[in-house]
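Exercise 7. Given the encoded structure of a 547-residue chain, write a plausible sequence.
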């Protein structure tokens, strides 16, 4: 695959701290980061993180020590990531929705000994500190919600204030503290089918993957990249924030996703590129059309996966859709760039350099072009993919059996080597001998003008086999009957895909990255299946002869 731009960085500079130093020397006072009414230059980023790094060193953080973060989007989070990386610490971002047992699991499974927390989330730690005796120190970052005297009194660890850390000198740290092969981050997957796994990501994985984004998508110093996804998540960090830095561009960070404010922010900041993950594309597409839709400077929008309405989305907002196939558990694999043929718009693109992909059956034998199987990948370049799951050797070995990383995704390659995502293996539905893609069911239902979003998944019927169920969220001001939805499905999909069970819900449960939590829906539905609308019980028969 041809790159739109070449960014050549010597191996000794391929660390997060080394890259920031290079970019600060190159770009100086050019604005790198904008957040609400604040902005920071490339030089600011480097000098602030130097000050923080020196203070954290003085506080006892050593190379290889694990530092947990409980912080929402703000500039201080990026400053601190770079600071910890510069002294060889390992960043452990924690989903800020975590609490109780889940919060305890993240802190203890990661072997974190140092915690950096928003002031408004400090009380969250107070409730679990007895289960986390290895956390010895805490830095509190003021987020406008003060920590009460009662909470402070209850904390049995050493406390420092973020502002105090800024008093250290801004001098550069030695170049030889960190190597490109050293661990930079433990990024935890969602853990919807079991305990979350900490993915060990070395510096060069994050550097090389981010450089590839800038190269294959042609990001330039004139670009303004925007993210409203949480920076504790790999998408915001590895496909937006770091690519913006390595492309000499400007990064805009928003506190969170808001459908009503999204396009206002895109226009206000002159955004030229943004990412839409999970249901975000569906939510924006469902908004009423406006004369302002094309009033923006955006030229690229990365969608994962690419929905059926992507071409209409391009026309409505006057931009181009790009995509990737990438995993926190492994790294970036493919890129769908603006240079690719329009006929390939539904694909995830072609392979990134040094990557190999195979479509394998359940016994790890290859499938022919066009036939779905499990997407399995390899990399020929050292230190540019995840190193495995932290303290989970069995899971690491199993995921990499026969020298292939098994993604758990189903897809296929076409005759030109373009990769097409079909479904998560665990989300695939097998009904009466037919394999059904929940993603395809969802895409068809999303075409109905009354539907805001939908989740399709398998439930077990009285015959102990999979049946298709959908949970549907309607647009505000719209209504839909069960019969109307089934008629739409029967007219637009194979008869065996038409849902048997249907429920309408006010809101689908979502993660902070706008992914629908299907496991919650499935568990709830299975427990009350006899109460849910059943197409067959209602006498609606759909078969291959149905008109």
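Solution.
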């Amino acid at each position: 695959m041809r790159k739109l731009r070449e960014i050549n960085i010597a191996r000794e500079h391929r660390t997060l701290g080394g890259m920031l130093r290079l970019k600060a020397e190159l770009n100086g006072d050019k604005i790198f980061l904008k957040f609400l009414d604040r902005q920071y230059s490339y030089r600011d980023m480097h000098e602030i993180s130097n000050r923080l790094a020196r203070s954290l060193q003085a506080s006892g953080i050593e190379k290889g020590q694990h530092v947990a973060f409980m912080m929402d989007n703000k500039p201080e989070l990026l400053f601190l990531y770079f600071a910890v990386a510069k002294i060889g610490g390992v960043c452990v971002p924690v989903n800020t929705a975590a609490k109780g047992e889940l919060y305890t699991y993240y802190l203890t499974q990661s072997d974190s000994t140092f915690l950096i927390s928003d002031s408004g989330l400090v009380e969250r730690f107070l409730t679990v500190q007895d289960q986390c005796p290895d956390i010895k120190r805490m830095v509190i970052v003021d987020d406008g919600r003060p920590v009460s005297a009662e909470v402070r009194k209850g904390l049995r660890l050493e406390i420092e204030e973020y502002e105090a850390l800024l008093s250290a000198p801004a001098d550069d740290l030695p170049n030889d503290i960190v190597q490109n092969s050293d661990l930079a981050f433990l990024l935890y997957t969602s853990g919807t089918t079991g305990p979350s796994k900490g993915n060990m990501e070395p510096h060069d994985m994050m550097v090389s993957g981010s450089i590839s984004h800038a190269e294959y998508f042609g990001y330039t110093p004139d670009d303004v990249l925007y993210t409203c996804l949480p920076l504790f998540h790999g998408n915001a960090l590895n496909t937006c924030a770091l690519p913006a830095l390595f492309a000499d561009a400007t990064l805009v960070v928003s506190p969170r996703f808001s459908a009503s404010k999204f396009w206002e922010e895109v226009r206000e900041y002159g955004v030229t590129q943004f990412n839409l993950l999970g249901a975000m594309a569906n939510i924006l597409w469902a908004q009423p059309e406006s004369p302002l839709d094309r009033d923006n400077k955006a030229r690229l929008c990365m969608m994962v996966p690419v929905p059926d309405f992507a071409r209409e989305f391009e026309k409505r907002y006057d931009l181009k859709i790009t995509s990737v196939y990438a995993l926190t558990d492994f790294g970036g694999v493919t890129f769908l760039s603006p240079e690719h043929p329009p006929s390939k718009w539904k694909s995830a693109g072609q392979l990134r350099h040094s990557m190999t992909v195979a479509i394998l059956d359940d016994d790890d034998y290859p499938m022919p072009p066009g036939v779905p199987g499990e997407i399995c990948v390899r990399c020929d370049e050292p230190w540019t993919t995840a190193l495995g799951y932290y303290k989970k050797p069995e899971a690491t070995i199993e995921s990499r059996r026969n020298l292939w990383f098994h993604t758990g995704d189903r897809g296929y390659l076409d005759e030109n080597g373009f990769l097409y995502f079909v479904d998560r293996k665990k989300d695939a539905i097998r009904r009466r001998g037919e394999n059904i893609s929940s993603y395809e069911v969802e895409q068809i239902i999303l075409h109905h003008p009354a539907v805001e979003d939908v989740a399709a998944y398998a439930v077990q019927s009285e015959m102990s086999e999979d049946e298709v169920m959908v949970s549907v969220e309607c647009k505000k001001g719209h209504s839909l009957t069960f019969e109307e939805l089934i008629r739409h499905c029967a007219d637009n999909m194979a008869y065996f895909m038409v849902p048997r069970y249907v429920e309408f819900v006010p809101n689908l449960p979502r993660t902070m990255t706008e992914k629908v939590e299907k496991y919650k829906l499935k568990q709830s539905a299975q427990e009350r299946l006899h109460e849910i609308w059943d197409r067959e019980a209602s006498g609606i028969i759909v078969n291959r002869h149905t008109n």
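Remark. The chain has a mean pLDDT of 93. Students should compare their own answers with the one above.
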